[in-house]
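Workshop exercise sheet. Pairs work together: one partner reads the sequence aloud, the other fills in the structure field after running the prediction. Swap roles for the next sheet.
Pair: D.N. / O.F.
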Amino acid sequence: MDTPIHKLKLRGGTNRYPHKGSDYMAVTVDDIKLSLRIDVTEDDPMIQSYLDAAKDYVQTAVSKNGDLTGYKQYDFAVSLLTQFWYQNRVTDMTKTPYQVVSMIQQLRGLVTG
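Structure field:
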């Protein structure tokens, strides 16, 4: 099993993961389930669809051309947004959580700066 995001140790206070490629920490359905304390598998397809949509949402909000997968803020924003959508799936989700907007703004600064 992959190391959950909250247990991943980054070196040197950098905004990027120490090793890109096979060691890169990508958000998984299991990470989301661990964060939300979900033990059942019935919602796995729904969580995966939220996860895929969150990745596209954050990527498009920041940059259509830049690769964000190496930034820890990207994983954090994707995780938060996926969790938000899952927890609020029966309500109107017209507002993006502040924390996700903050991560998107940081990523924009890192990618363009």
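Discussion prompt: The radius of gyration is 14 Å. What would you look at next?
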